[in-house]
Amino acid sequence: MTADKKTFLPFHGHYRNLRVYHVTEALYDLTYTFCQRFLPAYGDRTVDQMVQAARSGKQNIAEGNQAAATSSETEIKLTNVAKASLEELLVDYEDYLRTHNLPQWGTEHPRYEGMRRWASSDDFMQTYAERSQQMTDEEFANLCLTLCHQAIYMLGKLIDTLQDRFVKQGGIKERMHAARTGYRQAEEAELKRLRSEVAQMKAEIERLRKENEELRKK
Fold first, then answer.
1. What is the pLDDT of residues 140-197, one digit of tens each?
2. Are 27 and 151 spatial neighbours (Cβ–Cβ below 8 Å)?
């Protein structure tokens, strides 16, 4: 009998299939472009901070997803880091709008709903690079704010799912223990079955031996 060595390793979809990863990838591209277009090239630490925060959001989703097979704790931790990085980035965009006396588009702003629908649409990933080239800094920053809110919301939902899975299924140690326990129980059941068959065979052999002796006496 051979053990299934993969029973304790959970299957996870690839991070590139996650909508939130695509949103953070777009957010990184846009943040890089925003900093090049609207922030000074030298002497402003905000540029490095914003680009690094955007990159951290994207990269930690990928790294957390890849770590999932061997460590649920690491997956949750890195996903939380991604969320925290995007919350930091969101504040940077809010600061830019405030310090440049530009409005932040709330739900009452006439262009808010259109921006939100476009950022949520199926064709956004194919159109954001070209359309953003024509945007003012106000439009650009509010688009990135919209993406930040979307990604933070989706990561919050993802973290809830991961935590719920961890509570119900445990981490890698618990799954390894369960897999090993199941293997041992199967081995014990098989051994018990074989012992029963051997006992039955011995009984049958003894019966046949006695029958043979009776026949020889006759």
1. 999 999 999 999 999 999 999 888 887 776 655 655 545 456 556 667 777 777 788 7
2. yes
How far is Cα 111 from Cα 106, in angstroms, rounded to an integer?
9
Q: pTM score, two decimals?
A: 0.72
* Residue 137 exposure: Cα atoms within 13 Å on the Cβ side: 16
Q: Are 8 and 172 in contact (CB under 8 A)?
A: yes
- The answer for 43, left when phi > 0, alpha when psi is -120 to 50, beta otherwise, is left
CATH class of 15-169: mainly alpha
Q: Choose among 68, 46, 30, 93: nearest CA to 158.
A: 68
The domain segmentation of the chain, as residue ranges, is: 15-169, 171-218
* CB contact at 8 A, 31 and 78: no
